[in-house]
Write a structure and sequence with these properties.
The chain has 302 residues and is an alpha+beta fold. It has helices spanning 3-8, 19-26, 45-58, 72-77, 102-108, 111-127, 134-165, 199-210, 217-221, 229-253, and strands at 62-65, 68-71, 178-179, 196-197, 257-265, 271-281, 286-296. The chain has 10 helices and 7 strands. The protein starts with a helix and ends in a 6-residue tail after the last strand.
């Protein structure tokens, strides 16, 4: 069967179909057979001329063949909730009354035809590569959201690494905001919200925002964006794992290395074994000494 016959026989409302089938039916030409005018050849040349004029005006949606004319917009893309009570011509039945030109104008005025045309144009743009498909648009939106979250997380990680490098505690004994002392002797009741000390981490995040880093705005205004103590500790652990992996990689690439260890007792009265590595970094051309970890000791006996 030809694409025209498949379009005419297509179930109504249109079922789900493969992309190849849909594209094939969308590209059905307006005139599908050399004998397309045989049904109107009644000896009147004006009727033949009228059909030619119809195709010039409505050929974008009207497909005419041996069995009559159908609307490929509505046949392929009409919404189930927009189906009229009387489908009739152009839809469930081909249009064969070529002399009734007003039927074409009436069909174009229906809202379901306009909506179907919009869906057809959108799908055609996708086929031509001028527009992304719905799934591609969703994937693109997810990718953009992922990149945005990466940028926000990057600001948090860099701030945590700065605190670690400078040996700054991320927060104090209390995590709530504490008013900064006033030099002029004003009481705490006069302290404005911008003068609250929210700890090193949040104050550095506020400094980044004032310096033009727009990615930290959500961290300042919301409490659920990677700023809680639990998330901070998790990020510190991930940073430590990555740094340890990089150190071990350099040690494995070094021809010589030595293990340095010592025992110390922490505030909880637990004996900790400190392990450090001394190795030659051939890339830097110098000897490096790096701390690796603390290991709790169960016994001091050898």
């Amino acid at each position: 069967m030809s694409a025209y016959d498949d379009l005419v026989d297509l179930a109504f409302p249109p079922p789900l179909m493969k992309t190849e089938t849909l594209v094939r039916l969308m590209n059905v030409p307006s005139r599908n057979n050399k004998k397309v005018l045989k049904q109107v050849r009644s000896g009147q040349s004006t009727c033949v001329l009228k059909v030619s004029n119809i195709l010039k005006t409505h050929g974008s949606w009207l497909v005419i063949g041996d069995r009559g004319g159908v609307c490929k917009y509505c046949k392929l893309f009409i919404a189930p909730g927009s189906i009229p009570r009387q489908t009739g011509k152009f839809l469930s039945k081909p249009w064969v009354q070529y002399s009734r030109v007003k039927d074409l104008d009436e069909h174009c005025q229906h809202s379901y035809h306009t909506e179907a045309k919009e869906r057809f144009d959108n799908r055609n743009s996708v086929n031509l590569g001028q527009q992304l498909s719905v799934s591609s648009q969703v994937d693109q939106q997810k990718q953009e959201e992922l990149e945005l979250r990466k940028k926000r997380l990057d600001s948090v990680i860099r701030t945590i690494m700065l605190c670690g490098k400078q040996a700054f505690p991320l927060r104090g004994h209390r995590n709530e905001a504490v008013p900064l002392p006033k030099i002029d002797g004003n009481s705490e009741s006069d302290v404005i919200p911008g003068d609250l000390n929210r700890g090193n981490f949040m104050q550095l995040m506020e400094f980044r925002r004032q310096a033009g880093d727009s990615n930290v705005d959500i961290h300042i205004n919301k409490k659920s964006e990677y700023t809680s103590p639990g998330i901070q500790n998790e990020l510190i652990g991930l940073i430590a794992d990555e740094m340890t992996a990089q150190i071990v990689e350099r040690i494995n690439a070094s021809p010589y290395f030595a293990i340095i260890s010592d025992e110390t007792r922490d505030v909880s009265n637990t004996e900790q074994l400190c392990i450090a590595i001394r190795y030659f970094d051939h890339k830097a051309g110098r000897t490096e000494e790096k701390f690796l970890c603390f290991l709790p000791l169960r016994s001091l006996r050898g």
